[in-house]
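Collaborator request, handled under Task 6.
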Amino acid sequence: MGKLSAAARWALAVVTAAAAAMLLCFAMRSTAMSRPASLPRETAAGVTDGAERIDVNTAGLEELMTLPGIGQVRAQAILDDRAQNGPFRYPEDLVRVKGIGEGTLNGILDQITTGGGADAQNFGG
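Structure tokens returned to the collaborator:
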């Protein structure tokens, strides 16, 4: 193969740049279209699909126990953590409670809120 002419080098550069731009667009599109699973989906009023959420900053033992995967021991651990460390700012903060991991949290995220006070946070969605 011989040397490429200036026009051929220019055409090759244009095609290469276009291919790189297309790859970048596809990568950005797939990232932008996926919704993070860890973000709760609630309205400003803390309600999803007409069902009220349990506020983990004000709920008592029995109310916490209505959540899937939260029995008496875990509910008491939530109350103890809340008393010792203050309110939960985000629903994901529940993982700081002993016995609550990512799996348990993912099972209840759509059913809980942290209220709307100065020390709590709700997410729009």
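The cover message to the collaborator said: "Residues 38-48, 118-125 have pLDDT under 50 and may be disordered. Residues 61 and 75 are 6 Å apart (CA to CA). Please let us know whether this matches your experimental observations."
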